[in-house]
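This is your field. Have a critical look at the following sequence-structure pair:

***
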Amino acid sequence: MLLPGASMQISFLKDLAMLRSPTSSYTFLSYLHEHNRLVTFINRGSFIPSRREYSDYLIWAAEKVAREPGVSVHYGERVLSIQSDGLVVSVTSLSESGHPVKRVRRGKHLVIAPGGTPRVPPSLSALAVRAPSRIIHTSVYAHRIDGIMHDILSGIIFKRPSTTTGSGSTNFRPVRIAVVGSGQSAAEVLLDIQARLSAFPPPVPSSEHSVPSSHSVDLIIHRGSLKPSDDSPFANEIFDPASTDFFFSLNSKEARSEVKREYENTNYGVVNPNTLAKIYERIYDQKVEDGAHARGAPSDALKTPRINILRYRTIAAATQYCTSDSSSDVAPIANRASSHSHGSLTLTLQHVLGSDPLFETRSYDAIIIGTGYERHSWINLLDYKDFGHVFGLTNPVSNGGSEIVQKDEPSPDSQLGTHAPLLVTPPWTATESTAVSVSRPSSAQGSVVSVTHGTLLYPGETIETRSEPIQPPMEQGEIHQSKDQLFTDSIDEMSAATEPAEDVTAIESPLDKIRISRAYRLLPVEEDLVGDTRRNFLPRIYIQGIAEETHGMSETLLSILSVRSEEVVNDLFEGVVRDCIFTKPNDEPATS
């Protein structure tokens, strides 16, 4: 996140090009040299740039790419589907700026690199949909927090009548914000929220008998403490290019899972030690002020927003209560068109160790979710009815999942060697989950009456749960194009009509299998059926940044981005040459 003062957690040498080509004009050093900051950056004595500077480097590189001959870059578009006739790939996208327009672009090959989709705890998912202005994920925090804090400030003002003049005075109630998560993003948001609350007017009791309190931010974590990230030299080797070969060569799902568990403390659910030190120091300062306040000495205990870490807690339920009653001394948030922005958000927290009390209820003005990302929604972009089955996807929406096995990719000639592709686990089997099947009468209408497992239930509905996975909804994807892929645009100037999503009712299909090569290429299934497009499928489809299950911990990070890109480009051109050698002019497979 681009928060004030935030630094990268990786050396500038692991940029977009350095590990692949140190003399490239796209390196971070080239960026510094072009901006006449190379010497001053060296004088800093650190390999770690600020996130603000690195963000500007990425913008500079993107602008530089857009100026390359033959490159066409399009922003502000959401990919709806990917299709193919076996000869070319068609990508349908929707412009989300200005007048909505659907566009279809066609090319010989495709790279899919959609990034991550925010992961929201099931207990918060339904409420997050109903109150999007009060519950946000850290992925949008930097863009949304200013508006949220403005709305909160507008809503905490109340009038206290004067006993002497009758004119009254303006006072402020305490603000409470929750941050959910135990990783780096949650920790940084915690510090940023406290700093923002420090700019709020100090709270004043609504009556002479009210207990004074300060603004506060609660960090809700399921463990006993925040854990430091391991960035020691030996641990960091898991992000080396050679580690990708090692991880991919492991011959079982269990072995890969074990390696991932061993190195989770390098990246998942952990916090940079410097950030931990800042949080601990702030909490210690609170204790100093509390001690002074208890003695009656001058203190800022009620002026400084408090940080509370709620340990061993999980969210059991989430509700929203409206405070639109004009008789209330706390005014609702002002100038909001949506009624579900009014009122407080209430979380029921459960102590995971069974301590007394087992449950507790806390109310908040806003909730920030910092529980990471899932990186499998790209699967839903493939058009199952068209060519998804080429890669083993046979059923839309109600797909059942897969298991990871190792298999060799057939080669058109033994002299070219073989790859050792693995089956990628689709998103709904990445973690254990519960399948939810909802039966809704055709006459069911009206408001939500309850929330179970994050599923909205309407009057007359019943719910059935099973120990099977369920597929998440399709999310936005991005298509990265290469100038060598010879894409041509075909634009349909049509109005964007959004079709209703298909209801998920049950999981009945057999396991689907998705195969991927070491060079990140999706591989058609082994069967070579007569008349099926699988035997004549020419486009080469690659994925980037979303194959951690098969390629290891560095897959979602910047560490080997430049190396991954080189591997994809090399495989693409080697494949094009190979297809030309082993394919007849009529596109029939060559025979020896």
